[in-house]
Amino acid sequence: MLSRREFIAKGTGTAVTVAAAASTGLLAGCANSAASHPPTVSSFHDLAGPRSLRAHARRHGLVYGSAVVIPVVQRNADFASLLSEQCGILVPSNELKMVALRPSRDAFNFGPPDFLYDFTQRNQMLMRGHTLCWHESVPGWIRKIDNKDDIKQIFMDHITTVCKHYAGKLHSWDVVNEAIDQNSKLPGGLRKSFWYDNLGPEYIDLAFHTARAADPDVKLTYNDYGVEGDNDGDAEKRRLILEMVKGMKSRGVPIDAVGIQSHLNAGMKYGQGVGDYIEAFRQLGLEVYLTELDVNDDKTASSDLAERDAIIAKTYTGFLQAALPNPAVKIVITWDLSDRFTWLNGIGSHRKEQPNRSQRPLPFDTDFKPKDCFYSLRDSFDRRKRA
Which CATH number fits domain 4-383: 2.40.280.10, 1.10.443.10, 3.20.20.80, 3.10.129.10? Predict the structure, then answer.
């Protein structure tokens, strides 16, 4: 089974079909604390319009949306309809990553993301780009080049071409993704990567300057994971990212936002650390986006579906209570909308405890029925005071 990073780095349009599954019992009495919701709906269409996540988010100064695997949207009409009803913004999970977009030096595969852009326009949605530079999505043909000046030119040309192709169309770009590794021995905790090795630490500034030159209006974002928890490792990563961003601001690097991926673990508590982190960026004049929200419940022992769903919903609520009060937070995106397509079920490293049990991390189940965490999300939006 693929590791987490191998799965995403492939940049393919493969969707993982989820079987209905087991359960979780980590928090006593959790079922009673799940978000309240109305009687069972007969169809996901019953939650469209003013009852949707999209509408509840908008009423409180937020945009809610989802990552998608584009071929799923193309071939599954029901899912496309669900997206159009629930989401105000979409982001392709894989198809704008370099491996998927650049099959060769002279070719760009804009077809799938262009389809998604057209879909968003037909449904009055925004679209954001993910990602221009990521250490796990470097095409093999680039790795064979041994001339650093040539690599730098390819790097700049790639960003320029892609950003110009979508200039004036996208809400935001994840310009650089996951450049910090708190266990790294490099200065500033920068991750050792193909780009670092060939372009030096300046590759980050270069990526942002190049993107801004190609699209003056799109919001440019630095995106990373592992910063959400109240533990020493996450705290150190938050410190390193904050110092990096402060340095970028002092050098005049055009950065508009920071993305918190928000891959959560069921039953964990989230609070002061992420709240202070968001406030630090607000004070720098930056927006904050929750870019890849979901909840991994592999370590939850119970196999009762209701109990598992209640714990997942409570985890959503706890994290959003820490993050959403800050007006810097503008966007909440779940990493897909239905359990049927969650990336977690294709990742061996995220199913070590329960390898034969499908995960349930998202607002809708495999049959597109709303779960407790749908209502937790909606209630969390409603508790936010509009800035």
Answer: 3.20.20.80
Q: Where are the beta strands (DSSP E) in 152-229?
A: 172-177, 219-224
**CB–CB of 386/360 below 8 Å?**
no
Token duo for residue 90 = 């979409």
Q: How far is the first Cα of the chain from the last one, in angstroms, to the nearest whole number?
A: 45
Lowest mean pLDDT among 27-36, 188-197, 215-224, 333-342: 27-36
- Cβ atoms of 86 and 353 within 8 Å: the answer is no
Instruction: Please state the length of the chain.
Output: 387
Instruction: Write down the pLDDT at residue 40.
Output: 73
Residue 356 neighbours by CB distance under 10 Å: 8
Task: Say if residues 242 and 282 touch (Cβ distance below 8 Å).
Answer: no
C-beta pairs of 120-126 under 8 Å, 24+ apart in sequence: 120/89, 120/90, 123/83, 123/84, 125/65, 125/84, 125/87, 125/88, 125/89, 125/90, 126/63, 126/65, 126/88, 126/89, 126/90, 126/170, 126/171
Instruction: Report pTM.
Output: 0.90
With beta carbons less than 8 A apart as the criterion, state whether 141 and 105 touch: yes
What's the pLDDT at 336?
98
Q: What is the pLDDT of residue 385?
A: 84
User: Two tokens at 285?
Assistant: 């004049």
Q: Helix count (H) and strand count (E) of the chain?
A: 15, 10
Tell me the domain boundaries of the chain: 4-383
Handedness of CA 41, 47, 50, 51 (dihedral sign): positive
Q: In a 10 Å sphere around its CB, with 0-12 CB exposed, 13-18 middle and 19+ buried, how is residue 24 labelled? A: buried
The answer, yes or no, to whether the previous bond of 14 is cis (omega within 30 of 0) is no
Strands (E) located in the chain:
63-68, 89-92, 126-127, 129-134, 172-177, 219-224, 257-260, 263-265, 287-296, 329-334
Residues marked active site are found at: 178, 292
Tens-place pLDDT, residues 264-318: 999 998 999 999 999 999 999 999 999 999 999 999 999 999 999 999 999 999 9
